[in-house]
Amino acid sequence: MRRYFGTDGIRRIANTELTPDLVYKVAKAGAYVLAKHTDHAPTILIGRDTRLSGTLIESAMTAGFLSYGANVKLLGVMPTPAVAYLTKKLKADASVVISASHNTFEFNGVKYFSNKGMKISDEIEEEIEEVMDSSKIDELNAVHHKIGISENATDLIDEYIVFFRKIFEDNIEKYNNENFVVGLDVANGATYKIAETVFRKLGINYKIINNNPNGININDNCGSTHLEGLKKFVVENKLSLGIAYDGDGDRCLAIDEKGNEINGDTLLAIFAKYLQEKGNLNKDTFVATIMSNLGLNKFSEENNLNLRQTKVGDRYVLEEMLNNGYNLGGEQSGHIIMLDYNPTGDGILTSLMLIQILLEKKLLASQVCNIIDVYPQVLINVKVDNCKKNEYEKDKDIQDMVEKIKKEFSNQGRVVIRPSGTEPLIRVMIEGKNIDEITKKAKDLAKLIENKLN
Questions:
Q1: How far is it, in rounded angstroms, from Cα 81 to Cα 109?
Q2: Are 183 and 209 in contact (CB under 8 A)?
Q3: How far, CA to CA in Å, does 359 sit from each of 50, 92, 178, 235?
Q4: Does residue 173 surpass a pLDDT of 90?
Q5: I need a surface site. Which of 30, 39, 162, 355 has the fewest CB within 10 A?
Q6: Which of 388, 427, 424, 391 is nearest to 13 (CA)?
Q7: CA-CA distance, 165 to 348, in Å (whole number)?
Q8: Residue 226 burial by CB count (10 A; 0-12/13-18/19+): exposed, middle or buried?
Q9: What is the rounded end-to-end Cα distance, in angstroms, of the chain?
Q10: What is d(CA 449, CA 454) in angstroms, rounded to the nearest whole number?
Q11: CA-based nearest residue to 22, from 8, 12, 32
């Protein structure tokens, strides 16, 4: 079992659990593993979100890389997908994003990307951990002229802006409507500047909220995990659409003009159908996770589309896409991967694709977003110690209740239990047609897990 990495890098409380010493070791070990087959001093990009501890973690990370002999380009505050895109475009050896994504400000995290701009595999993460915990970590010291250097490279954000203009500028200009106005909630996070710049360059009318980060207000009752404020903003200002990003900018959820939520499953359905109509959906197939709504399966069947499902985590969605040649995948939470453009979830890219479709089809968001019949889902998070997150699999009482619920629902719903990869939680999800029934079952199961494992 891995000691440091979860499903989305290393994520912990900054400076007490994610200490500068730990980050320093992660940097040295990561630089060694990701660049050990190169014959040159590696170049590594570092981007971060807006949380208070960002510069602390960035400093420790930089020190670790330079000590190993790697050169560093400091990108400053930059969305995760921008870092991924620039890593591949600049042919860097690796990159790191310092972010805890949707978590509150006291958390921070470290996510590695390979030279292809993709999150590194479980196997590479395990190799990094082995180096961190071995005596080899003390040997990875550059000396004399081989010590690395760092440089400020915040101007590289312009490359990312050009990337969007190349994809969308012609179509947006062709179909744009001055009455079409978008509400942007940037979560006081990594997209707080660039989203506004991109929308302005493309000529999309917008109103923006939560774009004044102070280091501690990232994701604070805003962004893709707290949609209430955006719903109200869209309805009160009679906007055409609301867009919400998360703290590091790799997720996007939306709100239609009536204030209804458009989640990742619905976005996947919209994009799959659009790409299918254009002849651009590889193998008429898209990828989601086991947490996707049952309605997405029904939608696929009715539209001659193939849906492949993986375990939870955008890295597993991407693996399935790469292994089988698919170009669209994502998660209910709003991680949408369009592999023809970027090898990671990209909130701004996702929002622009949705806007392009709405403008091109001359339809209201509510008209496009009723594309699937969403089955009610109840999700309950149960707090448990990290060391106990997998014990539900061995507990007879818990497994007996799960099997009983599964039999009761048969083909009319699902039961999914999974440990969180980023928090000390077990997530209990039950899906079915009757919201009252599934709510009761979910609460009963969650209570049993809480009593048995705490």
A1: 16
A2: yes
A3: 32, 37, 11, 19
A4: yes
A5: 39
A6: 424
A7: 12
A8: middle
A9: 21
A10: 8
A11: 12
Domains of the chain by residue range = 10-152, 159-368, 377-453
**Angle, alpha carbons 217-218-221 (nearest 5°):** 75
Q: Reduced to 3 DSSP states, what percent helix, strand and coil does the chain have, rounded to the nearest 5? A: 45, 20, 35
Q: Do residues 48 and 54 lie in contact, with contact meaning Cβ atoms separated by under 8 Å?
A: yes
Task: List the CATH code of the domain at 10-152.
Answer: 3.40.120.10
Name the pLDDT band for 411 (thresholds 50, 70, 90): low
The strand ranges marked E within 226-384 are 241-245, 252-255, 261-262, 285-289, 306-310, 328-330, 336-338, 377-383
Contacts of 433 (CB under 8 A, 6+ apart): 375, 376, 412, 413
Q: How far is CA 326 from CA 121, 272, 308, 310, 340, in A?
A: 18, 11, 10, 13, 10
Residue 257's contacts (CB-CB under 8 Å, 6 or more residues apart) are 234, 238, 239, 240, 241, 364, 365, 366
pLDDT at 1 over 70: no
Q: Give me the pLDDT at residue 32, please.
A: 94
Residue tagged active-site, from 95, 101, 150, 224? 101
- CATH number (3.30.70.890, 3.40.50.720, 3.30.310.50, 3.40.630.10) of 377-453 reads 3.30.310.50
Q: Which pLDDT does position 388 carry in this prediction? A: 83
Confidence band of 143 (pLDDT split at 50, 70, 90): very high
What percent of the chain lies above the pLDDT cut of 70? 99
d(CA 268, CA 286): 8
Report the pLDDT averaged over residues 53-77: 98
Task: Give the whole-angstrom CA distance, residue 359 versus residue 340.
Answer: 21
Answer yes or no: 150 catalytic. no
Contact status, residue 426 vs residue 392, Cβ threshold 8 Å: yes
β-strand partners of 328: 338
Does this model's pTM top 0.85? My answer is yes
Residue 105, pLDDT above cutoff 80: yes
Question: Of 224, 74, 221, which Cα lies nearest the Cα of 155?
Answer: 74
Mean pLDDT along residues 246-274: 97
24 within 8 A of 119, measured Cβ to Cβ: no
Looking at domain 159-368, its CATH superfamily turns out to be Alpha-D-Glucose-1,6-Bisphosphate, subunit A, domain 3 (3.40.120.10)
CA angle at residue 160 from 155 to 161, to 5 degrees? 90
Segment 287-330, tens digit of pLDDT: 999 889 989 999 999 999 999 999 988 889 999 999 999 999 99
Say whether 377-453 and 10-152 share the same fold. Answer: no
